[in-house]
Structures are given as C-alpha cells and as structure tokens.
Design goal:
Layout: H1 6-16, H2 24-31, E1 35-42, H3 46-62, E2 74-81, H4 87-105, E3 126-128, E4 131-138, E5 153-158, H5 159-165, H6 167-184, H7 189-194
Parallel strand pairs: 1-2
Antiparallel strand pairs: 2-5, 3-4, 4-5
Helix pairs in contact: 3-4
Pfam families: YqcI_YcgG
Protein name: YqcI/YcgG family protein
C-alpha cells in the first residue's frame, strides 16, 4: 500500500464527518475502521495511476472475503495535484486516470459476473482484479458540497457490496438523498435524471449533457451468456 499522508487522511476523516458530506456508507466504513486510504502524486498521471492500481488490486483481491450484508468498505485514493480546476477539467483527469488503470488491469483480469466495462451500459462497473466498482470523484472545484474535498480524490465502492445490502441499500439511499436536499438544496440532478440508466455519468460528479460520451475505452470483451443487470438494483423507480 502506498504510504498514506497522515495529514490528508485526517482531513479526509474530518470531511466525511461534516454535515455537507452525504454518503452514509463512507461514514459507516470510517466508524468500522474499514476505510482504506492511499495517497498519490497527481490525478491523471500515468505513474500515479500505476501506483493507485497496485493498491486497489490488493484491496480488490482481498475484498470477497470481507463483504457481507453488514459490511461497509471503501477504498479512497487522494492526490496532491492538480489544485482547483473546473468540473470539465476534473472529469477529463479522472477518466484519464481510470483509463490508465483499466489498461493495466484488462491485460490480466476479466469481468465480474453480471457487470461490463462498457460505460454506455447500465451494468457498467470500473474493474480491478475481476471486481466491479462504482466510482465517486471528489475535488475542490466541485459544484456539489458533498463532493468538494480539499484534494482530488476517488472513492472505489464495491457494486457487489451494494447488492448484498439488499433493502438496506434503498433505506440508505433515501437518507443520503434527504441529506443532499438539506445540504445542497436538491438531490444531485445526475442521479434524478439518469438513475441507473448510465452509472458512468455519475463518476466524476459533474452533471453531464444529454449527448455526453464517456471518454473511456473498454478493453474487455463482453462475456457470452453474461447476466446483464445482475449487479444492478432492479428498483429504478427508487428515489
């Protein structure tokens, strides 16, 4: 594991516990000492992406032994650079970083059953070590208070973990969205408009245009006979 920066780790913990931060899953992970943190030089940098991937792979390979309906676990990567950039620049950098990581992973590992690496699909997940993740990008230039951290950051959340939560997922989702309304004035419009239709739209945190194209090239072939949507929650009407 890349040696975490102690000061950044402390800032991350403090941010997660603020009223502005909405994700209750991250709070639960922190409370249970199940938040894994790595700190790296620069978001979008190829060398930093390789280091992020090495640590995420170790995390992903150990993850199946730790997941349960009671678990809340997350891996958060933070970065020294860049400083404050606008949401378009951050979106470009986060997808560039993920592409570098995916290019390495896809040489050795495949897809989690029921998921795809095609960002146009509703069962898309970012993969590492055969495990699919939902990404939450954060940065100091975010328009959403819940994603406005002092450093660029990427949280990697297991899609299988969401499924294991069952109905608790929807209770937690409802509570998170109520916090969003209180702290940000509204639910994140990206989730309201697109919900589970195209999760890649949610990764950077920017509200994307109708004609948005994900700047990410999948290297995996879709598995024959895969179960589309197995790692999706079926209740797309849930708000």
């Amino acid at each position: 594991m890349n040696t975490p920066d102690t000061a950044i780790r402390l800032e991350l913990e403090q941010f997660i516990q603020t009223t502005e931060f909405s994700c209750l899953g991250a709070r639960a992970a922190l409370k249970r000492n199940a938040l894994t943190h790595g700190h790296y030089r620069c978001l979008g940098d190829e060398e930093s992406a390789r280091a992020t991937y090495r640590d995420l792979l170790d995390y992903a390979l150990a993850l199946p032994r730790t997941l349960s309906s009671q678990s809340f676990r997350t891996f958060v990567a933070t970065f020294d650079e860049p400083g404050i950039v606008d949401e378009l620049a951050h979106e470009e950098l986060i997808w560039q970083h993920l592409q570098f990581m995916h290019d390495i992973d896809s040489r050795t590992y495949g897809l989690e059953r029921g998921a795809t690496s095609d960002p146009t699909q509703p069962n898309f997940g970012f993969h590492a070590g055969g495990h699919a993740f939902f990404i939450v990008g954060m940065h100091p230039g975010s328009s959403r208070a819940s994603r406005r951290f002092v450093k660029p950051a990427i949280a990697f959340n297991s899609l299988a973990q969401f499924m294991l939560l069952g109905e608790k997922f929807y209770s937690m989702q409802g509570a998170i969205r109520r916090r969003e309304v209180t702290n940000n004035g509204s639910v994140n419009p990206s989730f309201v408009d697109y919900e589970y239709e195209q999760p890649a739209r949610h990764f950077s945190g920017r509200y994307t245009e109708d004609d948005w194209k994900c700047p990410y090239v999948p290297r995996h072939e879709s598995p024959a006979g895969g179960i589309a949507g197995e790692l999706m929650h079926p209740r797309s009407d849930a708000r």
